[in-house]
């Protein structure tokens, strides 16, 4: 066990290319801080170094935003209505955050090159307003003013992928209140086309992307916190998805967060699902038993 600050909420793995080590970054929602645990390459970590974030950090993602070969961090500061970018320094530490305005109460961030200029950008959704912000990167670690786009509903989670095979990044947003996900296809210039929504189970708080059935097309995987199940929406390859299939996580469960990986080395993507219910207080592994669902 490695202590962090108060209210640890989200973690990211940050590989240090210069030193060949794996570090951990943990955002602490109650303390308004981020803990950095620098790795020893032995499975152990140094005592935390603490960096100040904005108020109520809710999400963290990784990317090389100044293109120096080192991975940096960006944090959604929910109650500060901004995002904070932490650049990795030559010493292997992280600089103080530089903040950029975003949507009110930013809750989830996704990173990618949305305008095809070779620089990483990010898109942010918040849980109070039905909008998202796109911030285009310059390649030197700074970002332009946010472009505000309507989503039609309040988004809780956002992910990226090329859903129609045109080489441009698209986005998908989980909508908690409307039991759906919305797919917006990228135009390649930093904007997105009209949204198409697809039904999920009840209260989706998270969405992720992977090729579940091995057909070379990206699928959507959504844990439904009030539905006691995980929804899988298989991609058609043109930006649309088939009707959901649901996989139970058991009576009384509240699946909240999910990661996709091949846990049993059979060449198929499996799911690890966290359960936020106080009754169960556990995580589940759902193994993929079919090459084609």
From TrEMBL:
The keyword Transmembrane does not apply. InterPro entries: FG-GAP, Integrin_alpha_N. Signal peptide: none annotated. SUPFAM superfamilies: Integrin alpha N-terminal domain (SSF69318). It comes from the Eukaryota. Keywords: Signal. Transmembrane segments: none annotated. Pfam families: FG-GAP_3 (PF13517). PANTHER family: MAM DOMAIN-CONTAINING PROTEIN, SENSOR KINASE-RELATED. This is VCBS repeat-containing protein. It comes from Adineta steineri. The lineage of its organism: Eukaryota, Metazoa, Spiralia, Gnathifera, Rotifera.
């Amino acid at each position: 066990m490695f202590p962090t600050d108060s209210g640890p909420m989200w973690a990211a793995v940050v590989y240090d290319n210069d030193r060949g080590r794996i570090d951990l970054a943990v955002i602490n929602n109650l303390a308004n801080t981020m803990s950095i645990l620098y790795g020893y390459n032995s499975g152990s970590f140094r005592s935390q170094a603490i960096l100040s974030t904005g108020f109520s950090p809710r999400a963290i993602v990784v990317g090389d935003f100044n293109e120096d070969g080192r991975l940096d961090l960006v944090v959604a500061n929910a109650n500060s209505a901004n995002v904070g970018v932490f650049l990795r320094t030559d010493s292997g530490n992280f600089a103080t955050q530089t903040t950029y305005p975003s949507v009110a109460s930013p809750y989830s961030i996704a990173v990618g090159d949305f305008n095809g200029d070779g620089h990483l950008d990010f898109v942010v959704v918040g849980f109070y307003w039905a909008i998202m912000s796109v911030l285009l990167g310059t390649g030197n670690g700074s970002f332009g003013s946010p472009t505000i786009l309507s989503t039609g509903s309040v988004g809780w989670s956002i992910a990226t992928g090329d859903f129609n095979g045109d080489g441009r990044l698209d986005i998908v947003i989980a909508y908690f209140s409307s039991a759906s996900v919305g797919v917006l296809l990228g135009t390649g210039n930093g904007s997105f086309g009209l949204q198409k929504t697809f039904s999920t189970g009840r209260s989706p708080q998270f969405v992720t992307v992977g090729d579940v059935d091995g057909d070379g097309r990206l699928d959507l995987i959504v844990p439904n916190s009030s539905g006691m199940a995980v929804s899988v929406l298989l991609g058609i390859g043109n930006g649309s998805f088939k009707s959901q299939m649901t996989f139970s996580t058991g009576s009384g469960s509240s699946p909240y967060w999910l990661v996709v990986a091949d846990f049993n080395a059979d060449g198929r993507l499996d799911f690890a699902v966290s359960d936020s219910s106080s009754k169960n207080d556990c995580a589940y592994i759902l193994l993929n038993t079919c090459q084609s669902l």
